[in-house]
Amino acid sequence: MFKRILIANRGEIAIRIMRACREMGIETVAVYSEADERALHVRFADRAVCIGPGPATKSYLHVPAIISAAEITAAEAIHPGYGFLSENAEFARLCKKCGVTFIGPSPEAMRAWGDKVTARSNAVRFGLPLLQGSEVLRDAKHAIAEAQRVGFPVILKASGGGGGRGMRIVRSESEVESAFASARHEAETGFKNPDVYLEKFMERPRHIEFQVLADHHGGVWVLGERECSMQRRHQKVIEEAPSPAMTPEKRAEVGEVIRKAILETGYRSLGTLEFIMDEQGSLSFLEMNTRVQVEHPVTEAITGLDLVQLQIRAAAGEKLDLPDTRTWPLRGHAIECRVNAEDPRTFAPWPGLITEYYPPGGTGVRVDSGVYGGWRVPAHYDSLLAKLIVHAPTRAEAITRMRHALDEFIVGGIRTNIELHKRLLNDREMIEGTMTTRTIERLLAEG
Q1: How far is 138 from 136, CA to CA, in rounded Å?
Q2: Bridge partner residues of 102 (DSSP)
Q3: Which residues contact residue 297 at a Cβ distance below 8 angstroms, ignoring those fewer than 6 apart?
Q4: How crowded is the C-beta side of 233, counted as CA atoms within 13 Å?
Q5: What residue stretches are annotated with the Biotin carboxylation domain (predicted)?
Q6: Vertex 427, ends 422 and 431: CA angle to 5°?
Q7: Which residues pair with 212 in a beta bridge?
Q8: Euclidean distance between CA atoms 332 and 246, whole angstroms
Q9: Are 437 and 204 in contact (CB under 8 A)?
């Protein structure tokens, strides 16, 4: 097992990884920008190294600085968390070249599954259901031809990224050229990869994802699914597990196809396969995220597993001591609300000084956070402040518990989306479990 791990991230996920390391007896190294000098992850680490100015391109995305920090602190491994360099195959390759273990899949597996177009080919190869779509688009003329073949509406997507960036919905031929240009520009800016492709666009699907885990000894586990339909502009807002739309039979059927695909492609780490579900309940593969997900705590709650510890153990080459079961037993229901520093009306980020901070507690309540009262939220990074997770025996009880937890959550000095979450938890579609990716848009349109 590793003796010291450098965490190439910040905020709540850095602290989450530190907690896992502490329980395993592993020392931690934090890296931080000048803007994060007083951040909690800097305080909680055994050692901390400043890697540059506030902008992420000069700090958390600056590969030479991170590799150097690992070398001077004698860190044996680097955990990338999510975002930043977590799905950067070149960074994983450089870690290996420098004798540092990258806690994640191999560069080859990351390219095979992380690139969206290549992942679509894998889906076809292993029999995963797939939406009609295209290969990488050469130019606007090619995009128009493929859109006509697939049929409008279509959605343009960045091949090398996600999180809503590089995505454009196109409903007519006249929109293709400008959408193609803007999607390529955003993909190049966000992921240093301008490649885009297109898929048939569903108007009101559900977004469902399956959690996988694999070690280096042939062990592969599919740990149930998460419902991520409550999202705005392709950004998830509320996640839950299991999905109220999934049946045990469908879970077992899809899980077995996923398990075989992961095993045969040699993928060895945590990963998440994302699907959309149509009104008839049919699933279509979208993409794979080759890292720990923001919403991993809801899976931890219903499986009783520490996914981050298991990810670290797998990276160290351990044979994971887990039951060899085709369908992992799930217990109760879990919901996660992402609490962001943002204007609840415009959704614009709202950096500034947190004058008061009181997270909720009690039975079945968990808060993963990287902030405190008196800390100033910087303007350079994602607006996520905290993840509020609840677990209860039933979905109805989990919704009730989340409502009470949101009532207890106090953040002063800045604006947050806590009131939006309260409203979402009282929406008819959320209560009935019939939400789609357009639910929040409908609510906003209703005022």
Answers
A1: 6
A2: 78
A3: 334, 336, 366, 368, 387, 389
A4: 6
A5: 1-445
A6: 105
A7: 222, 271
A8: 14
A9: yes
Chain mean position to CA 71: 28
Catalytic residue among 291, 313, 401, 415: 291
| Helical axes 89-97 vs 63-72, angle rounded to 10° | 30
pLDDT tens sequence across 15-42: 999 999 999 999 999 999 999 999 999 9
Looking at the DSSP assignment, which residues form a beta bridge with residue 230?
A: 238
Identify the bridge partners of residue 334 per DSSP, sorted by sequence position: 241, 391
Active site residue 291: yes
Alpha carbon of residue 234 to chain centroid: 12
Q: Confidence band (pLDDT; 50, 70, 90) for 163?
A: low
Identify the helix (H) or strand (E) that includes residue 64: helix 63-72
Alpha carbon distances (Å) from 396 to 82, 309, 426: 30, 30, 11
Residue at 102: amino acid letter: F
- Nearest CA among 86, 254, 245, 78 for reference residue 161: 86
What's the rounded Cα separation, in Å, for the pair 376 and 354?
6
**Closest CA relative to residue 272, chosen from 227, 316, 232, 313:** 227
What are the pLDDT digits (tens) for 332-355? 999 999 999 999 888 899 999 999
Two structure tokens written together for 193: 């990869």
Three-class SS state of 275: strand
